Amino acid sequence: MTTANVTDRAGAIRALKRAKKDLTNVDKILVDGGYSGEKFAQDVKDLIDAEVEVAKRSELHSFAVMPKRWIVERSYAWLEKCRRLWKKCERKHNTSLQFVVLAFLVLLLKRS
User: Fold this and answer.
1) Which sequence spans correspond to the domains of the chain?
2) Which whole number is the average pLDDT over 53-76?
3) Statement: the pTM of the whole predicted model exceeds 0.85
């Protein structure tokens, strides 16, 4: 979560810098079309030595199943099941971010 004056790509790079030591086993990052670009891919490669794969639509006005896009959408659907994340009720971005992390932790713990 970032403020409005930070682009999604810049926010992702910041997050990767913070979590660099925990991402040593990551080989590929799946992102949506908002993260496309050679500079972003190169920054990710330099930071954590991972490949960036963009799941985006090729034609704007026709329906087509996009490969691997369902993975991204499924993750958002899982987050929407958490009532606390439906609305922005936290004052600080860090608190909201921690609730997202907790939501995924709960999901992982239920599956193990």
Assistant:
1) 1-58
2) 70
3) no
